[in-house]
Structures are given as C-alpha cells and as structure tokens.
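Q: I have two molecules that I believe assemble together. Could you output structure tokens for the complex as a whole instead of separate predictions?
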Amino acid sequence: MLNSNTSALGVIFPNSYDSLIPELVNVRLMASIPFASRYRLIDFILSSMANCGISNISVMVNNNYHSLMDHLDSGREWDLVRKNGGLNIFPPYAEKESKRFTGRIAGLASILNFLRDQKEKYVVLADTNTVVNFDFNAMLKAHMESGADVTVAYNSQELPESLRKSPSNDQCLYYTFDIEDGRITRLYVNSKKEGIQNFSMNIYLLERELLIDLVNTAFLHGKEYFERDILLPQLNKLNVQGYKYENYIARICDVKSYFDENMKLLDDYNLDSLFSGNPIYTKIRDDNPTRYIQDSKIQNVMVADGCIIEGEVENSVIFRGVKIAKGAKVKNCILMQDTIVEPGAEIEYLITDKNVKITAGKEMKGTDTHPVYISKYQEV
Amino acid sequence: MAKEMIAMLLAGGQGSRLYALTEKLAKPAVPFGGKYRIIDFPLSNCVNSGIDTVGILTQYQPLVLNEYIGNGQPWDLDRLYGGVHVLPPYQKANGSDWYKGTANAIYQNISFIERYDPKYVIILSGDQICKQDYSDFLKFHKEKNAEFSVAVMEVPWEEAPRFGLMVADEDDKITEFQEKPKNPKSNLASMGIYIFNWDILKQYLEEDEADPKSANDFGNNIIPNLLRDRRRMYAYHFNGYWKDVGTISSLWEANMEVLDPEHSGINLFDEDWKIYSRNSGMTGHKINAGAVIENSMITDGCRIKGTVKHSILFAGVRVEEGAVIEDAVVMGGSIIRRGAVVKHCIVAENVTIGENAVVGAMPSGDEGGVATIGAGITVGPNAIIGPDAMVNKNVEGGEELC
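A: Yes, here they are, computed for all two components at once.
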C-alpha cells in the first residue's frame, strides 16, 4: 500500500464512559448520543479519522449498540465503504466464557488476529465522549519526530466536577499526567486534584506490532485497562509522549456538561472553532429545509433541517424534524429529533430525547444547574 | 431480465431564458427550494414510483449535473442492474452527432434502452417542479390498453394558447394535437411526460430519424405521426402541483409557492413522497440574537444576524447585521453584507452582496421584474441593482444597474 510507513488504522470504543450519563444511554451508547443539532458524538472522531486518511476503522461495540449500527450503516457517509479496510463493527463474541468487557484490553484482545492481519504500521485508539475536530496527521508527525513508543493526546483544563466528585469505581477511569520535556513521567488514575491538569483525551497512537504485543501479554495476565494496567506500570520502560491538543474540545461527562457543551456552540466563536476545519459527516435524513411560519420569534438558536417553527424559541439547540407550534415558548432547551411542542406549551431548561411530545398548554421548567431530561417517546 | 418500465429524462436543455443562472450549468441542475436542484423532482418521483432505471440525456454544460448525479446514491439509484446513467452524445463508428432534438436524443440511445428490454418507456422532462406518481400513470396506460399516453393538466382557457394542447374524447382518447394554437379546441396542456410502449416508440423513432425534414422532436414530429396512424393515444389527467420553471419569474414564483404549501399544493414536508437530494453536510443553521425571521425556509449552514422575510435561503448563506432579505431566493454559499437590501429577486450560488447595496425592489402594482444575480458574482458596496436586471458580471461599488 502507498505510504505504508505513515498509515494508521483506527479503533474506536463507543461505550466508554457510558456510566457517566445513564439517562442518555438508557437506550443507546455514548457514541450515538445526539449532539449539536444534527450529529451523534461518534461523528466527530470518525470524521476526524476519515479526513486524515484513516480508512480502516474498527468500532468495538459492547452494549446497547442498535442505535449505533443504524447510524453508521455501511459507513458510506464517512466515505468508509472500502474494499481494503473501511468500517468494521465488532460486537462482543457470544462465547460461553466471554463477557462484556470493561477496559480496552479485553476488547483489543478479541481482535488480535484481525490486528495481526492488517497492513497499517500504526494504530490510533479513541473514545467518543470528546467532541473534537482532530488532526491525526499532526499527531502522527509528532509521534515520529519524538521517537515515542506511545503518544497520548491531552489538553490542559480543570477536571470536570462530576468526575472529581464521583466515587472511584472500576467502570469509569480517567487519567491525568505529569509531563517532563514531552515525556509522561507520572500517570494518575481518577485524580481529585484541583486546578489545571494535563487531562488525557484517551487518544493513543502506537505501532500496531507493539500494541499487539502489549495487549497479548496484559490479557494473559487478566488485565483490563490499557492505561492503568499497561502504560502506568511501564512508564520507565516505554517512552510515552504527551501530545498537547490546543483546539476546541467538548467533553461529555454528565447530563449537565452535555447541556452546557451544546449551549456553548450557540457562541459563534465556539461554533466556528469546532466546525471551520474539516467537515464533520453524519447520517443523512433527507429532511427539507426548516420552515419558519409567520409569528415565529427566534433568538440565538441553532436549528437543523426539517423543523417547522411557529412559536418562540430562545437560546436553544433544535435537532432535525422538531415541530414547535404557535404560541409555544421554548427557552434554554435542547430538543432532539422529532420532538413536538404543542400550542401554548412553555418549556425552559429541558432536554427532550427523540420523539418526545410536550402537550398543549403544558408548563415545564428545569434550572440552569439541573436541566430536566425527558426520555424517548414520552408524552408530557 | 426485463424491466417493466424505464425512464428517460431529457436534461439537455440550455434554459436560455434563465440566462444568468444557466451560464455554467444545465437547467435541470438549477437549485430550487432551499436544498434541491430541479432534477431531484423527477428522480425522486422515479424512485418513489418504483422505477429503478433512469437514463439522463445531457448535452449543455453537463459538468455540474454529472457531478451532482454521481453514482445516483442520494436517490437510491445506485443499483447492480439498472440505476441512473448519464447519457451524453457520443462518438460512433460512422461519426458523431449532437442530440438534434428530443426524439433524436432517445433515438441515439436505443441500445441503452434495449439492454433492459422494457415493455414501457416513460419520457420525463428535467425542467419541471412536480410531485407525481408515475406508477399511477402507468396503471392508466395499461387500463386503456394505450400505445402512447401523455400526462395533461387543465389550464385556464385564456392561457391555453401558450401550450401544446391535447384534444380528447370522453374516454380520454386523444383525437387531435395543437401546438400553441391561436384558437384552442381544448384546455388540456401536455406536461411533456409520455409513456410509450417500447416497440411503438422504437418504430416511430426509426421512422422519424429516416425523415431528413424532421426536427426530431416529440411534440412536433413523433406525436403528429402517431396521430396520423391513428395509434391508441390517451390523455392522463394530472391535478397535483406542476410548474414549468423555464423562466426567471416562474422559477421565483415556484420558490415562493414552496413557502406556502397550504395554498400552493407543493408540500416538501411529505414523509410519504420525499424529495431526495445531495446534502450539503453543513452543521445546523444559526440564528443570532437580534435577527428577525418570518415566513421563510432556512437550510443547514446558514448564519443569520439580519432580517429575513418570506424568503428561501439555501445551505450556508450568511446574512450580516442590518441586512434585509424579503421575497427573495438566495442560493447556497452567498453572503449578504451588513446593511444590504435584497428584495424580490434571485441571488445565485456563492454571490457576495456588498455593504448597503440594494438588489431588486418590491413591485409596484403589476410592474417590476425579478432581479437576478448570477453565480459567483460580487456586487460592490452601495451598488444599486434594479428590478429588471440580470447580472452576470461583477458590479463595482456604487454602480447603478437597471
């Protein structure tokens, strides 16, 4: 293959951090949570990979993945229908002794033979709860220049409160680093430190052969987590380099951050920061343009195609196919696909999941700190 | 494996009356209704009617159209056997020919049609906005045991002289055809959509081709010849929305009618009859604080800070603070700068309207045309473009055009 010295394959873990946001993953997984009026979370990392020429991508689905299969379909929207590589979805194997995996090691161990058969020199590992328009080529260049064994992308920010305050559990591990001259010297699991930290984005780049080696050994010893059980004990042996990401990032860590990160995109600066680079692809729905009828009043909203809006909408993110009837008032809300707000209803600080109906005249309000979530197909 | 019916879509027209809009693209590729192109309508009708094989006859400026159609995937027309095929004129052993007329375009592609061995062929036109179920038309054709059927619309008698008219008896059997007559005997206008039995069509195409005096046109040659031979010809009444968008004013009008589906009958929000198109892939549109939106259709990727009333904005249009857009069609990627006023007009793709420029004007009484700005044009700040202007060159700041 052309450029085989610089080519990478991608492995995406769509279930990571599901437990942080139980409401939204009740009928789906992290990767398929709707975001920014017409996307699903996985669209960002998947489009980033596809835009950087990574066209052999494996998605390690683990749990609740019907919605994701439907969304990804053949991978055509990301130009991932390829004779060589393309999109592979790996569900867990239904063997007697197999169980759903928690960390990445068991997942990767289940595809070791696949990984051995591939031609790409490098592997990129990623989750889906970070919304980024990521340049993997720049990361690969840094990796090659530094001579690292493993490169980890991170950004500098404070740890989200939801993570710091959550009780430590095995379901949800997050990582921070000490870095000296680019090299990671210490790795902390579930740190509670305050202030700006080097916060891992869980995007890893390493040679395929090395990954196979590391995973194989760790799996035989019954290890679970790539970071905690492979990297951390071997920081002296492996040259693990940090790659600082300086562009726009949204991290989904709970319902509140989901709400805030959507709302942040109503600021044109943020919206441009995330979307002005390479395009982000998503599933096409063939909706018509959104129609605004006579008395609609619209202030500071992001709206996808396919909506019919007759009422008043302010500071909100509106997904495809939403209908807001005459006299309805929508303020500080996130309305997912095909939500219906009937005449005269007034809602504030609400997150409505797909196909929710707010009946006529109903008043419902959450607060800035506690937006109310209404689950799929509910009628209020 | 034979196909029952395949479609041949005439898309070669230059659309010279659309002028500034069709300088670089064929008429069927002209954008329409916020996110569509005209050709999306016949293509979507085909796939919604169960027709999975479509030949598109192209000739004039086919680049945009070819790229747009691609492998036909957006219309579900990427098929192993059949699907959509773009058919430009091609070189043969005994020379090459442009398509001389609509009938000749089909004649030159007889071998394409025969690959599918169809019983029926439907001839479609690429310059109409219409949602039509062709399977219902075919049912009529079969019930009448017809050899040729034409879809017709009742038009007001006073407008009838502008159309090709079918005179039919009470059983819908066609007895006479009048092309734009002074004294119409019928008000059934041909929509230019025909179903032929393939054996009949082939026979008449070959006969027509052998006639050196023929203009090789369906309306002027094939249909009169069928009548001459007293073939079984029927008129199929269609009473849904139909519009020939061959002129600037009819194109503008049809766009405005999209804004009023309750009265105009052209409903794009029809889950059971979706119109498919190639999507922009842009993020949701953004309406800022201070913007005013009334009675309009807005597509993905738009950023609106100004005022938009009774208008259609295609993907990625930017409207800056203080700009006013009213009764206008603004196509993809155009930018309306601060303070500009854009009224009663069509602005094509990737146009920039400079600060405080004025484009078009609301008509006073019956007077006043639809100003048109061609694709990629820049209109300088403070320029004034009159309501009858067709602009296909950049306009300097402060310049006045009418």
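A: One point stands out. The longest helix of chain B spans residues 198-210.
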